[in-house]
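G., the chain you wanted modeled:
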Amino acid sequence: MCEGNTKILYNFATAKRGAYKLLKCINCHFLRISPIPEQKIINDLYLNNSMSEKQLDNEVFSSSVLTSIKKNILIKPLINRLYKIIDKTDSPKLLDIGCSTGWITSLSKESGFEVTGLEANSYVANYGRKKYAINIMEGFIEDLNTDDFALSFNRPAYRN
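Predicted structure as tokens:
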């Protein structure tokens, strides 16, 4: 986001898509993958309406044990630490871009954040809203009307 230097946090590969790196900006801590997947791959992911509940619950990992470890040992402590160090004069708000089913968004809500998720796959977003009872908007970040969105996380603010 800030165009700062990045460091590699994690190397991973998928059977169909090849090798990727999870990168973290040293300055602003923004996370991204490299290389960015081709638009066809992204479209295929977001148009997939045939995932089972087990697949949705397990997210990236194929094991509920690994998913539990990821949630409780890796992610939740980071969210709790973030909540402790931020200014809480106003209710702290968190936008989870590409939230998938919203499980990280939900963990953030449990830690005290006012949360909103943004997910491009309507099937996955709907599942997350039902499962976690959180606000998940549908769309891509490029479609957000940032002026309206900055004022409130409580209403969908994206262009068609």
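Confidence is low (pLDDT under 50) at residues 151-160.

Shout if anything looks off.
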